[in-house]
Fold this protein.
Amino acid sequence: MKILLLQLKRIGDLILTTPALAALRESFSEAQLTLVVSKECADLLPAISNVDRILIARRNLHDLSLFFSIAARRFDYCVDFTRNDRSASVALLSGARKRVVSYRVREQSKTRARAYTDFVGVRMRDMHTIDYNLALLKPLGARNASIAPHLDLPQIAYEKADALQRDWKVTKPYVILHPGSAREEKLWDPARWAEVIDCFARNDGIDLVLSSGPSRAEQAHVAAIKSKMQHQIVDLSGKTDLLTLAALIDQARLLVTVDSAPVHLAAATRTPQVILFGPTNPFHWRPRESPAVVLHGKSAAPVTEFSPVRPRLAMSQISTEAVIGAMDSLLLLRAAAQIS
């Protein structure tokens, strides 16, 4: 049996597809699983397991060879987690006798819908993303495996993380603060980040580590934060590749971040985290298998009840006090667990 899986979105989406990959592998141990991902996910691929082959869609002339390769293999099944014009074209090229997607495609585009044979009665806005991905496997008869996201981080990632800790003299349990995001509306105020950092920089029992992606926008955001800080901390912003960052998160006492890829890296490594949500709904993206405090809106209390319908809120509504309180609660919880 040959199964083609299409996940052409970003890093977080791919990580939240790993439970579906595990479910397919558990249900069809002898199947040949081929996964197609976007070029933005290339750095994560050494940590993706339960598939036999991974192809990268690059949105350029190199995709011609991708298309020919898929058309030549004649798959039995195709599951499209992406639901856009590009993934519909790839699904059609697969020649699979069952080509599965959400029923929403029929409502959005009759032309795109012709690429599929099976439409599952689920839509993403009603479900957590992991549940949505698993639901798309029902026409194949797959049994649900663990709903926890999973990454097989290579040993070299931990070696690089250990080297960074030695080079930057990170000798204590550490907290990672990752303030960056590719979307500007997800950024929290630099002055508030600086206030949080200065508060915990006085704690002699922990080291603070600042991280970010390499993009110019994220680096500018980090520079704005550093300009307002009164204390120096370990600054690894732009100095790690994705898998090294994941290994650092795995070994961290706590991650503090906005809704971005590190949220899902921490979920996959079961690292406690404080997550600041604003324009995105935590109902769809929150970790469910690892300790996490979710902040959304003006309330100082963490969100504990999640709904598929929740307003888009400005990040500025989240207070410094709420973030500090959430960090304190998780650090105390971790310390109590170690004592017991």
Observations:
- The first strand starts at residue 2 and ends at 7.
- The radius of gyration is 21 Å.
- The chain is about 40% helix and 15% strand.
